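Forum: Protein Structure Q&A
Topic: Joint prediction for protein chains with partners

I've read a bunch of threads here and the consensus seems to be that you should model interacting components together rather than docking separate models afterwards. I'd like to see that in practice. Below is the full input, 549 residues plus whatever partners are listed. Could one of the regulars post the assembled result?
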Amino acid sequence: MKTTFNLTRLGIGLQEFYYLYWKDFRTMALLVLIFAIVGNLYPTSIFYEFILRDSKENLSIDTAYKLISGKSVTMRQLMFIPMLLTVPVLYQFIKRIRTTISRNLLPLSSWENTLIPILATLGILLTLSLEIYLLDTIITQIYHWLFYDDAMRLIAQDGQLYPYIDPYAYFNHIPLSLYLFSFNKLIVIIIVIMIGLLSIWEMRFLKLAGLCVFVAGIYLANFWISFRTYNRAMITFENSIGIPQFIYNVCLLIISLYIIKHLFKESQV
Amino acid sequence: MITAKQICFGYKKEDQVLNGLSLNLEHPGIYGLLGKNGAGKTTLLKLLAGSLFPDQGQVYIDRISTQERHISSLQQVYYLAERTESPDWTARRLGNIYGKLYPNFDQTQYLHYLDIFEVNPDIRHKSLSMGQQKKVEISFALATQVPYLFMDEPTNGLDILSKKQFRKLISQYTSEQQILIISTHQFREIDRIIDRLLIVDNKDLVLNQSLEDISEQFLFSDAPLADEQLLYQDEGILGKYGLYSNPSKRVSTLDIELLFTAICNHPDLLKNIQSYENNV
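Posted by a regular:
Agreed with the consensus. Here's the joint model:
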């Protein structure tokens, strides 16, 4: 076990990953910040109109309903920026292992090479999710502070004393379920991307065909175990995590890791 | 010990680069690997290092197949590629991170080699010239102190002074237990530092001998020798150079270029000399 997996070597591998791609992490964090700002300040947005308005007190009834009905799509899409940005990093990392002889021959086992990008990607996703959470908290507090009282007063004047405030409203944080759902999806997608990249590099078309079946299987199974409720997003991890789903996820992860490990072991430069 | 047993390898199925090559690397020392362009020198080094796997046959590093990618095997081998491959880090960081993966890596020695090469360890890789990048990689390779070190055209891109420094470093800092294979086209850059010679030709390893044995077996002369059998003659700028058999074990200066040309032009030369010696 010591020869196939060693924490010190894994640490060195993660250190390598960090120093290779820390500029990309910085760019990702910056892009999330820019996207969050732009997503709230684009022309016709609530903030934009608020800044341009002469009288800060006069909130329109339309804006008040907009504030309780749901955040702009951009804020929700922010969750998927990390994934889009981690794909090129993963591509570069796998390319480096598959094309650079000295890297390919480093004393790192195939298990370590498998876990390095997955753990590093998890780290990136967690850090960026934390950034999104902090940004969301700050932005939500600003909306709350600036508009909540006025919006509630206007809606009450309009006849709705107990208005329904959407979980995705400007006054609410992004729900935890969306983080969990996104995280679950992102990990699956990242693993699939890794298998795809490794297979393509080896030009193993049989494996590639297997991969397509594998991906289709994942989505069919995910579709089967997920459920939709009216007016809500698809939720995989609801309040309770079912045992079948948990077993399914663990099996999926083990099979995926074995495939990636196998592909790394076969690697030749 | 590195053992290659009947290895065949081709990048395409119909075009084999190496065919049935066998090799035992058991004697420590500095090996010069020679071969014509496309003879398979780089391929052989990659196969020995475990970067490529043979289509047939096996390569073993201390009895462990390279295909197993065993950590203990990988820790014993370092392959210095012809083109520079290091990430855009400073040389110091390169040593700090990758050095930890090799049990015998010596950071102090590494910085010392860089000092000899006059490379600043705190400048990023991409800010260095190609020659300086190569120096960083040579320094790192030497500092790993692995038992099996393979260098593919290590002096490419180095200036004359650096080539001299390289030879000095190799002869001074290669340990007595180490096997170092240098693949090169520049015979004269290595002829004074190598202990053994490997020649790849016709998809096979045709020579694996110490320079001492070669000098005992062959006689090199730029003047005609009537009493020895002439095996090969080459026209040079300063006259005709002859490769003779050497049954009387006379001393001559080894001419690697002449030997290499003779072997490449007459593939049966080594077989002939063997049978001639047996007859004598």
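Chain A has a mean pLDDT of 80.
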